[in-house]
């Protein structure tokens, strides 16, 4: 189950990752970290590249809100069965464990993880996944969330893959906090609040688009994203306009 | 008193501080949700009823503001809400001075609450005597200080693109909120949002739950808000209220109603109750 590349690039054979490919991905991600970059778009790209680089079926990113509740921020694919797996991790699951302990969680075989995660494991298996990994997003001593990888086959990440994923998790953390020198806890909280609210705006916009164009809720995300790309606008700006401007909203279908 | 908890370094809210305890492992992670909201609700429940003839929502929000003042050692608190004409207006204040400061922000058209509203993010000003604050709010900063307010923490009351208002917390002493108090402040804001949306079951004891349930699929609820906007041709704030009113009217959980909307098993029409007040009648 290899992730598709929606930009039309050929997905290379992932049995070994070339150092060129890794460099390419980090340049691509770094290129996105310009002034006024779109956080949701960047995290979406990050999760897709994470899945692609280490050849897993799906990747997603969860952030903790001020009450310590894990909220969905971005995924390599906006599929219902995948989003449910993120949601359930407010109770149990690898992200919950990684967030709570600050340690990466690896799992060789989900079919044998029922004792550890009695709700999460069977759901993940029935969604077609066999392995799961969670890497904490850390800023010094704070853990702000976790990056979650789902594999179609059982097996641990290779050590070199783990390092790549850790690096992508670190870049995501920097992007979320937008500042490398945050020293005050309150700035961290402000940034997280803002990021989490942005994601809610995206969900509301997906609803508007799905209803307006009579399309599937999960296709609505792609419609928003491709409009933002075509018009060189931030995804959040397009989503906000779609939700708040009921008169002069952008026409995503023809525009 | 539960009030002392936020100053305790082991208090759940301090996970985001510098205590060195990652992810709040010392306090059982997921249990945090219940903790700070339950604490805030208990503090509000302890407050005496407001004087005068306030509506149910205003009366609850007044008690919320006095609870925040009492346990966060503030000088006052105020809640401003968006009016039909699109401007911020004072809804309730914990005391007369806070009322005056909040009204000043409206009158002057500047201040932390206006900035929080416009930027859709918290504006935390620990020191109004600071030159940056003076440049940012040349009229408001000195006026607030004249009323003995040295710090102003303004938290937007919002759900995604739905902007309901701002919670302003005023303090006589300058200085940042501790991480624990900041979590508490944000939780007071959460409860104010729930109340303004008619989602606070504490007000009448019977509204279907869903707001703070950790297991609820919140993404679906936000998507349903967007879908109902188009179905009814209303703004996101109204769509949110209509969904809640419908859930109440048919006695179902909001999460289930949202599921049905997103799965296109349910379409709201214009005859539905338009607000909780109407649904309660």
Please tell me about this protein's structure.
The complex is a heterodimer of chains A (255) and B (281). Chain A is an alpha+beta fold and 255 residues long. The mean pLDDT of chain A is 84. Chain A has 9 helices and 5 strands. In chain A, α8 packs across α9. In chain A, a hairpin with a 2-residue loop joins β4 and β5. By secondary structure, chain B is of the alpha+beta class. In chain B, strands 2-1-5-4-3 form a 5-stranded antiparallel sheet, with helices on both faces. The longest helix of chain B is centred in the C-terminal third of the chain and has 18 residues, at 179-196. In chain B, 54% of the residues are buried. Chains A and B meet through α3, α4, α7 and α9 of A and α1, α7 and α8 of B.
In a nutshell, what does this entry contain?
The complex is a heterodimer of chains A (255) and B (281). Chain A is an alpha+beta fold. Chain A has helices at residues 19-32, 39-53, 80-87, 94-101, 120-126, 159-177, 185-212, 217-230, 235-244; strands at residues 58-64, 70-75, 105-107, 131-139, 142-151.
List keywords for this structure.
heterodimer; A: 255 residues; alpha+beta; five-stranded antiparallel beta sheet; 5 strands; 48% helix; B: 281 residues; Beta-Lactamase; 2 domains; 44% helix
How does the overall form of chain A come out from the CA principal axes? globular
Structural class of chain B: alpha+beta
Radius of gyration of chain B: 19 Å
Q: Order of strands across the biggest sheet of chain A?
A: 2-1-5-4-3
The major sheet of chain A is characterized as: 5 strands, antiparallel
> Regarding quaternary structure, how should these chains be classified?
heterodimer
Helix content of chain B: 40-55%
Q: In CATH's first tier, which class of the largest domain in chain B applies?
A: Alpha Beta
- How many helices of chain B in DSSP terms? 11
Could you estimate the helical fraction of the residues of chain A in percent? 40-55%
CATH superfamily of the largest domain in chain B: GAF domain
**Could you give the count of β-strands of chain A?**
5
Give the helix/strand class of chain A.
alpha+beta
């Amino acid at each position: 189950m290899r992730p598709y590349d929606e930009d039309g690039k050929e997905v290379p054979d992932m049995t070994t990752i070339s150092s060129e490919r890794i460099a390419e991905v980090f340049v691509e991600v770094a290129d996105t970290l310009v002034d006024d970059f779109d956080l949701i778009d960047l995290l979406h790209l990050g999760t897709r590249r994470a899945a692609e680089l280490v050849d897993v079926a799906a990747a997603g990113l969860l952030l903790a809100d001020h009450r310590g509740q894990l909220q969905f921020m971005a995924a390599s694919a906006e599929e219902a069965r995948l989003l449910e797996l993120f949601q359930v991790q407010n109770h149990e699951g690898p992200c919950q464990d990684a967030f709570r302990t600050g340690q990466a969680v690896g799992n060789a075989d989900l079919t044998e993880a029922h004792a550890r995660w009695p709700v999460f494991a069977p759901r993940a298996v029935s969604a077609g996944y066999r392995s799961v990994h969670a890497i904490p997003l850390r800023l010094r001593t704070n853990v702000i969330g976790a990056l979650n990888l789902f594999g179609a086959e059982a097996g641990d990440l290779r050590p070199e893959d783990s390092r790549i994923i850790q690096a992508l998790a670190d870049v995501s953390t920097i992007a979320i906090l937008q500042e490398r020198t945050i020293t005050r806890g309150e700035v961290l909280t402000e940034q997280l609040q803002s990021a989490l609210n942005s994601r809610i705006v995206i969900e509301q916009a997906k609803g508007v688009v799905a209803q307006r164009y009579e399309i599937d809720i999960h296709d609505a995300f792609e419609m928003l994203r491709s409009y933002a790309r075509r018009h060189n606008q931030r995804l959040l700006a397009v989503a906000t306009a779609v939700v708040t401007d009921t008169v002069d909203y952008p026409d995503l279908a023809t525009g | 008193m539960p009030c002392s908890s936020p100053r305790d370094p082991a208090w759940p809210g301090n996970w985001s501080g510098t205590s060195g305890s990652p992810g709040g492992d010392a306090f059982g992670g997921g249990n945090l949700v219940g903790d700070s909201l339950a604490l805030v609700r208990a503090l509000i429940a302890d407050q005496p009823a407001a004087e005068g003839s306030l509506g149910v929502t205003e009366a609850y929000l007044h008690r919320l503001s006095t609870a925040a003042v009492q346990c966060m050692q503030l000088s006052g608190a105020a809640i401003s809400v968006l009016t039909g004409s699109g401007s911020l207006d004072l809804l309730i204040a914990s005391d007369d001075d806070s009322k005056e400061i909040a009204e000043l922000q409206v009158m002057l058209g500047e201040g932390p609450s206006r900035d929080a509203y416009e930027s859709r993010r918290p504006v935390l000003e620990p020191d109004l005597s600071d030159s940056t604050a003076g440049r940012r709010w040349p009229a408001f900063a000195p006026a607030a200080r004249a009323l003995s307010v040295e710090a102003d923490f303004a938290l937007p009351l919002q759900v995604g693109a739905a902007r309901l208002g701002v919670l302003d917390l005023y303090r006589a002493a300058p200085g940042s909120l501790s991480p624990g108090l900041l979590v508490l402040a944000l939780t007071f804001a959460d409860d104010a949002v729930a109340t303004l949306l008619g989602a606070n079951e504490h007000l009448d004891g019977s509204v279907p739950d869903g707001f703070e349930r950790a297991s609820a699929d919140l993404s679906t609820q936000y998507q349903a808000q967007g879908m109902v906007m188009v179905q009814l041709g209303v703004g996101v704030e109204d769509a949110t209220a209509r969904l809640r009113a419908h859930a109440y009217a048919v006695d179902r959980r909001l999460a289930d109603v949202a599921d049905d909307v997103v799965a296109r098993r349910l379409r709201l029409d214009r005859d539905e109750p338009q607000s909780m007040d109407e649904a309660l009648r």
